[in-house]
């Protein structure tokens, strides 16, 4: 099965750590974040992988060559000229995908979520996409109904809110975990540009089923800050 790992980000929240290396290459107990993500995806059957590159792209491509020599199958989508966010980045790489559902995964996510369970739920529900979600602290939340369908988005720090074809009543806040299974049909509704997948989902959720899988058990860490990076190093020892 196919997957795309988003690895092009600048990693600004990591401060001095990413002055000389990209976020995808931060060290986690002897492995790069990219290697951790590739191993995670491959272990659940998503073993034909596309990654996008931008920040320190040459260094990331060197790591890809190393991982390919280790037996992983990885291709590269070059965003050196312009960082496209995950929506635009996915659309640029659209020719890589076939007619089967695929996984999208952020390189800075460390989690014990069973990606196979996420895939099975997606196949069972037959929606356009299925997002892993989790109750955790934050400012930006997906709004879901009682059936777990995405119905909106809210930023509690700014008060900004977007509703997708429904009122607020009965909706609950939950955070997106940056892991999702998507139908290739989604490319019909995409175009070139710089935009996020969440923005796209919000446009589509009124007329299409966007489901969620809650995973409050186990661990989930975004290694986007020095503190969370150190935490996950200790967690995985």
Protein model, in words:
The structure is a single chain. The chain is α/β, with parallel strands linked by helices and 237 residues long. The protein has a single domain (2-235), classed as Alpha-Beta Complex (Spore Coat Polysaccharide Biosynthesis Protein SpsA, Chain A), CATH 3.90.550. It contains 6 helices and 14 strands. It has helices at 33-43, 57-69, 85-92, 115-125, 197-204, 226-235; strands at 2-6, 27-28, 31-32, 48-53, 73-78, 102-106, 109-111, 129-134, 140-144, 150-155, 161-163, 172-182, 210-214, 220-222. The strands form 3 sheets. Strands 1, 4, 5, 6, 8, 9, 10, 11, 12 and 13 form a 10-stranded mixed beta sheet that branches. The protein starts with a strand and ends with a helix. The model has no long low-confidence stretch (mean pLDDT 97).
